[in-house]
Amino acid sequence: MSGEVLSQSEIDALLSALSTGEMDADELKKEQVEKRVKVYDFRRALRFSKDQIRSLTRIHENFARLLTTFFSAQLRTYVNITVASADQIPYEEFIRSIPKMTILNVFDVEPLEGRILMEVNPNIAYAMMDRLLGGKGASHNKVDSLTEIETRIMSNMFEKAFENFREAWGSISDIDPQLSEFEINPQFLQMVSPNETVVVISLNTTIGEASGMINICIPHVVLEPIIPKLSVKYWMQSDKKQSLPIENSVLQSEIQKADVSITAEIGSSEISVQDFLMLDIGDVIELNQQIDQPLLIKVGDIPKFVGQPGKLNKKLAIQVFDTFKGGDDDGER
């Protein structure tokens, strides 16, 4: 009875039965203990928690939105892609569930180990190719006789589409998906052992009037290094870190500690390269500024003040007596 919500009338009937002796409380406890025993299939090991599956679903919902935008721009027709389900099953069961002839794209996802499989229903794949070649998006299934040109067009299209996978996974891991294999017969494809647990994310896909499924198959070996990042706790901590505000006072105090260079220019001059090469000891270069004019003081490379030279404690110094007027940076810093 755990997991069931009883109405008030059912609760009253249950209490009445217990008080009259029609039901025995010990028998109820025994029944509850017996229900705690669950059948476990060792050939179908569940290696991901519900929390982790929800995180994977959240990632691929973002991936589905990115694919919708990408294919809409490429095909210039109505496209709708949504997540239908996310399950963990043995690899052998996944292979049996897809068509005998279909479009299989295998991707390396460095730095993660293993490979990810994207299976595209032929109805969808041919509708996409027909649109790319200027058609209306008609769909027909002749995967067993793919020409070399059709193979090239499809592999290029899905390789570009899978680049959105990098963005969808950006919050979890920085991956670099690369198409490593293109196949049409699942029996010729052996990525992992038949009993290896894989996560299969199924995407409902509509291209114009054609519809079908796109399945993303991710083996456990790929996800194993990043499993801790698939928990709700990690997502909450990441959001919290991103939302922490920086106090203005702290920022200001750190900026005030920064070192900046200050230079005072006596003047400047322009000469030709030939005159520069002919310079010798004792030569005099005439500057563009009179001796009684104020000097320009720069903070970094930006003119900020004007002043006059002098001495302080037997050291050269310059006295600031006004801010620099003019220039694009005046009053901005």
Automatic annotation (TrEMBL):
Q: Which SUPFAM superfamilies match?
A: CheC-like, Surface presentation of antigens (SPOA)
- Membrane topology of this protein: Peripheral membrane protein
**Does Membrane show up as a keyword for this record?**
yes
Q: Flagellar motor switch protein FliN-like C-terminal domain spans which residues?
A: 254-320
Its annotated compartments are:
Bacterial flagellum basal body; Cell membrane
A Pfam family the protein falls into: FliMN_C
Q: Which UniProt keywords apply?
A: Bacterial flagellum, Cell membrane, Cell projection, Chemotaxis, Cilium, Flagellar rotation, Flagellum, Membrane
Q: Does the keyword Thylakoid apply?
A: no
Task: Show the coiled coil region(s).
Answer: none
Entry's InterPro entries? CheC-like_sf (IPR028976), Flag_FliM (IPR001689), FliN-like_C (IPR001543), SpoA-like_sf (IPR036429)
User: Where does this chain mainly localize?
Assistant: other
Family (UniProt): Belongs to the FliM family.
The molecule here is called: Flagellar motor switch protein FliM
This chain's source organism reads Mesobacillus jeotgali
Its taxonomic path starts at: Bacteria, Bacillati, Bacillota, Bacilli, Bacillales
Q: Gene name, please?
A: fliM
